[in-house]
Amino acid sequence: METKIYLIRHAEAEGNLYRRSQGQYNSNITQLGRRQIAALAERFRDIPLDALWSSDLNRTQSTAAAIRKYHPDLPLNTSPRLREIDVGVWEDMPWGNIARDYPAQMEYFTHDPASWSVPGGEPYETVQARMKAAVLDLAAEYPGKTLAVVSHGLAIRGLLCDILGIPSAEIGRLPYGDNTSVTLLTVTDGVISADWYNDASHLDAAGLSTFARQAWREAQKKRVPVRDIYTRFEPLDPRAESELYAKIYAATWKESHGDLQGFVPAVYLASAGKHAGADPRCVMKLYLGDDLAGVIELDPDRGRELGAGWISLLYVDPAFRDRRLGVQLIGHAVSLFRREGRSSLRLHVAYSNENAVGFYRHVGFRDVDTARGVSGPLHVMEMDIRPFILGPEDI
Length: 395
Known about the structure:
Elements: E1 2-9, H1 14-18, H2 31-43, E2 51-54, H3 58-70, E3 76-78, H4 95-101, H5 103-111, H6 124-141, E4 146-151, H7 153-164, E5 182-188, E6 191-199, H8 201-204, H9 216-221, E7 231-235, H10 242-257, H11 265-278, E8 283-288, E9 291-299, E10 308-316, H12 326-339, E11 344-350, H13 354-362, E12 366-372, E13 377-384
Helix pairs in contact: 2-3, 4-5, 6-7, 10-11
């Protein structure tokens, strides 16, 4: 008796957008991810289904809402066996920092995952085994039925390599599937076969592909050195690097206000020194290769009473704009403040700085108040960073 399983990768999540490792780190779906889920819902609108399963992580449960939109009577079942690989000490690290600190293991992870090993990491063969066991158990539980199962990129890729007989050292023969890509498996008498895999036609038709927005993927195929593909973060010491900090803050001030009237470097240097002294991660430089591409400064105390984390400075060098680096700085703030239990990010931005206002709104900030600035009114903007799971009513 044949059981059909539509195996679906989750929609775009924060790690995909912020370029941070998200094995079993419980990240949220992004705004693009929401649109991908809506497209996935339409794809499955008229496909008869008997059961729905996903991993127990937020991003897969949110993606499963696509199925429930037009199949409201299907309960969502979850299992940790359908989770992504646990990447141990790499969890929530920027990929550029991983490439710098673990170059050999990064090479293995990308091109031969069975040889990959880091503290706390889950062996590739273990992921393959638990995914295969989960699929076979589901087929046994639902003989002759059709299921939708939502899982993760490497978990699905590893299972497919097992099914197709692709050894770890040749994993490049089987590319990753895009976010919400669909694979159709058939299980017959305990044998799994793939009818087709990694189909994302519902994204292509709507212009919603995550991969189409990731120029680094083509660079990776050409074996460009990883240090030139992924961004990394390093602490900025405002005391030892006072000239650099003042220069960057002055550039940001002038762009926001039109001139340097009211800018007092000593005041902002003292504040930055206090922030970095509380936690070096509060003042960070963003590098692409050897080039300084941006800076972010976080105030660990401001907004605490509101449950908010405060961004005091966000700067992207003009030479690196329009390369999706600003959102990676936001990702650093999300990572730091969410771990502290904060529920949102807040910041000020001048009304006159229309480009910055547009950027913040695009990445999820909204206006919550107005403040008085040195040379005019300021937006008080906020972005919710609490963990969430989407339901069918959110699609």
